[in-house]
UniProtKB/TrEMBL annotation:
Coiled coil: none annotated. Residues 10-179 form the SGNH hydrolase-type esterase domain. Gene3D superfamilies: SGNH hydrolase (3.40.50.1110). It holds the Pfam family Lipase_GDSL_2. SUPFAM superfamilies: SGNH hydrolase. This is GDSL-type esterase/lipase family protein. InterPro entries: SGNH_hydro, SGNH_hydro_sf. The lineage of its organism: Bacteria, Bacillati, Actinomycetota, Actinomycetes, Micrococcales.
Length: 201
């Protein structure tokens, strides 16, 4: 970690702000609550309900730009929180791949360190398509050496996750589900990405 002020922008759909969480924390709030920065950090969660990777790609630069500080004095970082709306909207996996690749390439050109969180399980009938989408996103991130958190594979058959969705009666998890997502983020390179020591359980 440098002496520069850390500013993190999280861009994604409504899952990134914890819709359905009775504590209103979502996975982002839980992750940040477990992250100890050397000095106060600024975090901005910029969510758009129903967002696909196409609409995300079209807006993220304009929304993050005024929130980041000068590179000389600020450690600007981007978290791309990918949802499941590409499946709902019928976007092809190839198009989704290209959209994420473009976001990561632009971020790299802007010298933004980027971290990607993939889509979690939703409706059972969408499982195969979300799994394919997550694998494609992971491949795109891996090729660019960008950290990627696969939330689909560990949660697809996870009892607590499935129980949470059943309880909420929607595709949004509750407190337990967001807690599981936060755990996956915290244990899949989050602290390393920030240059911070890992917090012990």
């Amino acid at each position: 970690m440098t002496d520069r002020e850390v500013r993190i922008c999280v861009v994604g759909d409504e899952l990134s702000v914890g819709v359905g969480d009775g504590r209103a924390l979502g996975w982002t709030g839980r992750v940040l609550a477990r992250t100890r920065f050397d000095r106060p950090a600024m975090t901005f969660t910029l969510a758009v309900p129903g967002e696909t990777t196409s609409t995300l790609g079209a807006r993220w630069e304009a929304e993050t730009e005024p929130r980041f500080g000068p590179e000389q004095t600020h450690d600007n970082r981007l978290v791309v929180a990918l949802g499941r709306h590409d499946v709902d909207s019928g976007l092809s996996v190839a198009r989704s791949r290209l959209n994420l690749a473009n976001i990561l390439d632009v971020a790299d050109n802007r010298r933004l360190s980027t971290f990607v969180v993939g889509p979690p399980p939703g409706r059972p009938e969408d499982g195969g398509r979300i799994a394919e989408l997550s694998a494609a996103f992971q491949d795109v991130a891996s090729r660019r050496r960008v950290p990627y958190v696969d939330t689909y594979t560990p949660l697809a058959q996870h009892e607590q996750w499935l129980a949470d969705l059943a309880t909420t009666g929607s595709t949004y998890p509750g407190q337990a589900g967001y807690g599981l997502m936060a755990w996956l983020v915290l244990h899949t390179g989050w602290h390393s990405w920030l240059g911070l020591p890992h917090e012990t359980e």
